[in-house]
Amino acid sequence: DKLFIGTTTGMVIYDLANPASPVYLSDFNHSTSCDPVVVEDDFAYVTLRTGTNCGGWINQLDVVDISNINSPSLVSSYSMTNPHGLGISNNVLFICDGNDGLKVYDATDKYAIDQNMIAHFEGIQSYDVIPMTDVLLMVGEDGFFQYDYSDLENITLLSQIRVQ
Q1: 48 and 63 in contact (C-beta within 8 Å)?
Q2: In the chain, N or C terminus with fewer CB closer than 10 Å?
Q3: Phi-psi region for residue 75, left (φ > 0), alpha (ψ -120 to 50) or beta?
């Protein structure tokens, strides 16, 4: 019943108790940057990146505590290469890190995400992901990819549709 919107200046949160009339609740501001956001439980994950028409001077992942929805607060920030889209499912965090490929993290410990990388798929320009039950949909420069992540120690490419 909440809507989280990533903007060029931060994350904005609305109450959707009445979806026809969203009500502003709060926001979390950051430096000017393109700002995708995903949410799981009491945490929002926000990526900031450079090299866009949004401006921006930093490449990082921010983890934001939203347990008090009216006062979001920064938990941790992690340096990234050039993060684009991201997704989360059961504390498994997927980050499309531009030319540095797809990165998969265990996000259970919000203070040590960078120390808990599960997998790193290099050599692909990744843009966005959607994790579904055990299958990750990813769009990159070379096309559309599906990965099976039911076994986190053996994430497997299921299929790929090439785009020229």
Answers
A1: no
A2: C
A3: alpha
Within a 10 A sphere around the Cβ of 66, how many other Cβ atoms?
22
CA distance 94 to 88: 6
Alpha-carbon 111 to chain mean position: 16
For residue 6, the model assigns a pLDDT of 83
Query: In the chain, what is the straight-line distance between the N-terminal and C-terminal CA atoms, in Å?
Result: 40
Q: What angle do CA 104, 61, 129 make, to 5 degrees?
A: 45
Q: Dump pLDDT digits (tens) for 100-138.
A: 999 999 999 999 999 999 999 998 899 999 999 899 999
Q: How many C-beta atoms surround the C-beta of residue 134 within 10 A?
A: 11
Mean pLDDT on 17-32? 88
What's the mean per-residue pLDDT of the chain? 91
**How far is residue 134's CA from residue 118's CA, in Å, rounded to a whole number?**
15
Q: Which helix (H) or strand (E) covers residue 119, if one does? A: strand 117-121
Residues 68-91 as b or e (16 or more Cβ within 10 Å = b):
eeeebeebbbbebebbbbbbbbeb
Write out the two tokens for 125.
């320009």
Q: What pTM value is reported for the model?
A: 0.92
State mean pLDDT over 24-38. Answer: 80
